[in-house]
Amino acid sequence: MTHPDPIPLVGLPCCLKRDGTMAGHRVGDKYVTAVSEIVGACPVLIPALEGGLDVDVLISRFDGLVLTGSPSNVDPTHYGGPPQQPTEDGYGEHDPARDSVTLPLIRAAVAAGVPVFGICRGIQEMNVAFGGSLLDKIQEDPGRLDHRMRRDVPYDWKYRPSHPVTLTPGGILERLAGPGPHLVNSLHGQAVGTPGQGIAVEATAPDGVIEAIRVVHAPAFAIGVQWHAEWPRPVGALNAALFEAFGAAVRARARSRLPGGSGVNQAAE
User: Fold this and answer.
1) pLDDT at residue 253 tops 70
2) Which of 15, 120, 188, 211 is catalytic?
3) Which residues, 6 or more positions from 126, have their beta carbon under 8 angstroms from its beta carbon?
4) Distance between CA atoms of residues 71 and 220, nearest Å
5) Counting runs of H as helices and runs of E as strands, what totals does the chain give?
6) 195-224 pLDDT, tens digit each
7) What pLDDT is recorded for position 89?
8) I need a surface site. Which of 34, 94, 261, 263 has the fewest CB within 10 A?
C-alpha cells in the first residue's frame, strides 16, 4: 500500500518579547511564509520558555527546524564571551528564554537527523550549541566591514545585496549553487568566531568574516548562513538552492516517518 507524501512539520523557535508588562512569543512573518511557501511545509511555532522544553518530544514530531534571525544576541555566558551592554537602538539585548530552548534543541535535532537551517542569529546559535564562540561588534575590528543593518533606508533596501561571499571549494554550498560569484545581504553586528566542534566553514565575506557553516557529523541537512536567505522574495540563486536542499531533506524526513518508512534521512551532500 502506498502512502501520499505527508505535509512536513517545520519548527520555528520563538523569541520572547516584552512590551511593557505584556510578554509574547514571536517569529517574523517572513520566516513563517518561507517555510510555508518556499519549503512547502507546515510551520509550527515553538514557544521560548525559560525553563526549556522537552526536546525529545519536539524532535519526535518535527521534520525540520528553522532558526530565525532576531535583534537579540546569544547570551555570551554560553560561550565564555565578555558581557554586553545593550545600545540605544536595542543591539546587544539577550533572550535567555530562547537560548534555553534553541541550544539543546539544535544538538538534539542534529543527532536525530532532523534537518536544521540557521539564519542570522540561527547560525550563531548553531555554532555556540557545538562549543564555538562569537565575535561582537565586528565593525570595530580593524580591517572588517560594517556588516550592520542600515537604518537610513526603506525596509526592503535593508535586504539588498551588500557584499560577495566566497564559497569553500568542494563544500556543500559550492556543490549546491556553484562557485559564484554570489552576493548576499548583511544585517548583523556579531559573527561566528571560533568554529565549534565538528563545524566546517562553508563561506566567508571579503573581510574574512564567516558567512556560512555546516555541521560535519550531521546525518541530514545542517547549515547556517549569516545573511538573510529568506528575504527578499523571490529568493535568489544561492538562497533558492539552500531552500531547495533544505526542503528536500525535510520531505525525506517526513517520508521516513511513514508506516514502513526506512527511517533514513537525506543529508545535504
Assistant:
1) yes
2) 120
3) 67, 106, 116, 118, 196, 199, 213, 215, 222, 224
4) 28
5) 6, 13
6) 999 999 999 999 999 999 999 999 999 999
7) 56
8) 263
Find out whether 184 and 237 touch, Cβ atoms under 8 Å: no
Catalytic site includes residue 230: yes
Question: Cell triple for residue 185?
Answer: 545581504
Amino acid sitting at position 35: V
Out of 125, 202, 211, 230, the active site residue is 230
- The residue type found at 105 is L
Tell me the pairing of strands 199-204 and 210-215: antiparallel
**Residue linked to cell 526536546:** 55
* pLDDT grade for 2, boundaries at 50, 70 and 90: low
Which one-letter amino acid corresponds to residue 180?
G
SS3 category, 57: helix
Cα distances (angstroms) measured from residue 152 to each of 37, 79, 147: 30, 33, 14
Q: For 98, phi and psi rounded to 5 degrees?
A: -65, -45
pLDDT in tens, 29-87: 999 999 999 999 999 999 999 898 999 999 999 999 999 999 899 999 999 988 877 66
Note the Cα 235 to chain centre separation in Å. Answer: 16
Q: Is-contact 175 166, C-beta < 8 A? A: no
List CB contacts of 258: < 8 A, sequence separation 6 or more.
3, 6
For the chain, the farthest-separated pair of C-alpha atoms sits apart, in whole angstroms, at 63
- The C-alpha cell that represents 47 in the structure block: 514557544
Q: Grid coordinates in use for 8?
A: 512536513
The whole-model pTM stands at 0.93
State yes or no: is 228 an active-site residue: yes
Cα distances (angstroms) measured from residue 116 to each of 93, 109, 163, 266: 24, 7, 25, 12
Length of the chain: 269
The C-alpha angle with vertex 256 and arms to 55 and 216, in degrees rounded to 5, equals 65
The reported pLDDT for the residue numbered 246 is 98
